[in-house]
Amino acid sequence: MASQQSGLSSQAHRASRTANLAACVRAYHCRWHASPIFADTCAFDMISGFWRAIARHRLSSWITVHTVFRAFRPIHTEIVLRSRYAEDRLMDAVGAGVVQYVILGAGLDTFSMRQDARSEGLRIFELDHPATQEMKRERLLTVYGEIPANLVFVPIDFETDHLDEALAKAGFDALAPSFFSWLGTTYYLSKDAIRETLDRVSGIFARGSRIVLDYKLDRDLVPEESLPFADKLDRFVARRGEPMLSTFTPEELKDLMSGFGFAELENLPAGEQKRRYLNERSGLVDPAPNFSFALYGVP
């Protein structure tokens, strides 16, 4: 994707740090919560050796989450909930006839390792930087001895390549209904890069297809008491070389998406995320108030 900021892609020779941290959160949640909201049973196998050593023990995990990263626990919840939401909507789409699953900036996603009989006919296309995919491929072969038969790695440098062309070369059928997942990414991209991505996706978005994404809210929409948290998060990711670049209001995102032919099916702010998934669950704080989830499709 020419001229796109590196947010979907990672650094040239390593997996994205934020992708690894997100997988660590999923691993910790699955391993140490009695009733996990999102049971990513394979995340532990994908994370780096350093983080596996921490996640392997309850005490070291607890200290890391509740002491070292205590201020960012709302992000812990947001990561868990966005993964659950995306796969809930994916299963809805599969039931409605979707036959292809495209994960943009797949990172250390593990759906292909956890899939059940409902997704037997699904082709899974993971798009990410070649270096990230090579690391993931090696982990898969080391831990499981094989690559899932319906998983297609689509190596792509999002700064120079076009995702529609890369998918076509990988065997993607632009006439078949598909489900696109675009998580943990939009806020690391410029708005021009987001528009370019949507333009490419819209050209291969068959009727019956859907796309789920999360996005960062404009600062004016963040409750005043949550602004110190939001600012601290911005500084944290920027220091790690992956600054957040873009925010939206729900109305702005809806207008942007409609310009490419996508109709809003659902928008989930933090309050609705909490109502739908948390209930009386203990061990998780409220989700980060500056992120929302959205589901779009074609009329």
Q: What gyration radius follows from the Cα positions, in whole Å?
A: 18 Å
Number of strands: 7
Number of helices: 12
> Separation of termini?
26 Å
**Beta-strand percentage?**
5-15%
Low-confidence stretches: 1-14
Q: Structural class of the helix and strand makeup?
A: alpha/beta
Percentage of residues in helical conformation: 40-55%
The biggest sheet, with number of strands, parallel, antiparallel or mixed sense and barrel status, is: 7 strands, mixed
What is the overall pLDDT average?
A: 88
Strand order of the largest sheet: 3-2-1-4-5-7-6
Compact summary:
The protein has 299 residues and is of the alpha/beta class.
Structure overview:
- This protein has helices at about 15-30, 45, 50-55, 60-70, 75-95, 110-115, 130-145, 165-170, 190-200, 225-240, 250-260, 270-280, and strands at about 100-105, 125-130, 150-155, 180, 210-215, 265-270, 290-295.
- The chain is an alpha/beta fold.
- The chain has a 7-stranded mixed sheet with strand order 3-2-1-4-5-7-6, with helices on both faces.
- α9 (about 190-200) links the parallel β4 (about 180) and β5 (about 210-215).
- It is globular, with a radius of gyration of 18 Å.
